């Protein structure tokens, strides 16, 4: 099952067609994607029997919005791929290094991002979406708490991020538009192996990041177990699971995003998101 958001309304996507959830269910399920995630098990059971005739809306990629538009909690994980830890000058961590992105930075899959002053960098990431309340979940049951997976970018303004001791990770990663996600939420059963997905970042058509999610030090189930051991997870919460090697501030010389750059973030089986960048008027 693939959940998209079109004109602010939850839709089940199949190929290039979509079914509006509220209309197709006769109003028994909500149009608001956040409310739908509160009833995720019911929504999945209903969608499994949805006839093809209900997929009556063409899917226009530029019109898809964030599949989870108003998450209550957004977690993010640093240094979760060994090559990225190495390029940053660190040994792989023994415990997940967790910070937050503030929810107001979350946007959809096709956006123009205003560049703030400083040094804006890219980080393609797999994002796990929580689908049911989860507290003290065992690792071997953690996938049961996942509504689906989506593509994300953990855009980062490095000057703000690294200012001070300790550094200001959350602030530097939460400027408006710094959490693009999409193009849809994809349930794990749609994927051959949700623990092993190809992940790629392209800048102006050139590959800058490439790995497989099986390389993660802490895979999705372990992250959910570790986080939920401390923090109750809620339907619609996002977990940005970390980025592979290839970020701009570790290039020689460093390369940061500039106006008119295009960033494509792609994960096999899920899709891609595209961001362009601009300098706001002075």
TrEMBL record:
Metal-binding recorded as keyword: yes
UniProt xrefs under InterPro entries: FAH, Fumarylacetoacetase-like_C, Fumarylacetoacetase_C_sf
Domain Fumarylacetoacetase-like C-terminal: 74-277
One Pfam family of this chain: FAA_hydrolase
Keyword Chloroplast: no
Highest taxon above the source species: Bacteria
Keywords from the UniProt entry: Hydrolase, Metal-binding
Gene Ontology molecular function terms on file: hydrolase activity
Family assignment from sequence similarity: Belongs to the FAH family.
Record protein name field: Fumarylacetoacetate hydrolase family protein
Organism: Actinomadura fibrosa
């Amino acid at each position: 099952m693939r959940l998209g958001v079109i004109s602010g309304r939850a839709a089940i996507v199949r190929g290039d067609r979509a079914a509006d959830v509220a209309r197709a269910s006769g109003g028994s399920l909500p149009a608001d994607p956040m409310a739908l995630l509160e009833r995720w098990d019911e929504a999945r059971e209903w969608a499994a029997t949805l006839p093809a005739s209900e997929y009556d809306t063409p899917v226009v990629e530029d019109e898809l919005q964030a599949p989870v538009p108003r998450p209550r909690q957004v977690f993010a994980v640093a240094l979760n791929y060994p090559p990225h830890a190495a390029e940053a000058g660190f040994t792989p961590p023994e415990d997940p290094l967790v910070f937050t992105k503030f929810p107001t930075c979350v946007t959809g899959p096709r956006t123009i991002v205003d560049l703030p002053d400083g040094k804006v960098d890219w980080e393609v990431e797999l994002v796990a979406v929580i689908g049911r309340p989860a507290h003290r979940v065992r690792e071997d049951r953690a996938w049961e708490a996942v509504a689906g997976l989506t593509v994300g970018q953990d855009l980062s303004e490095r000057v703000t991020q690294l200012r001070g001791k300790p550094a200001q990770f959350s602030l530097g990663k939460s400027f408006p538009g710094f959490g693009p996600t999409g193009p849809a939420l994809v349930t794990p059963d749609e994927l051959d192996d949700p623990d092993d997905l190809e992940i790629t970042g392209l800048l102006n058509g050139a590959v800058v990041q490439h790995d497989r999610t099986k390389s993660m030090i802490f895979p999705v189930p372990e992250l959910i177990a570790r986080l939920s051991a401390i923090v109750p997870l809620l339907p619609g919460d996002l977990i940005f699971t970390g980025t592979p090697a290839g970020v701009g501030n570790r290039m020689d010389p460093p390369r940061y995003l500039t106006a008119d750059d295009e960033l494509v973030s792609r994960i096999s089986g899920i899709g891609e998101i595209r961001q362009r960048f601009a300098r706001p008027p002075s």
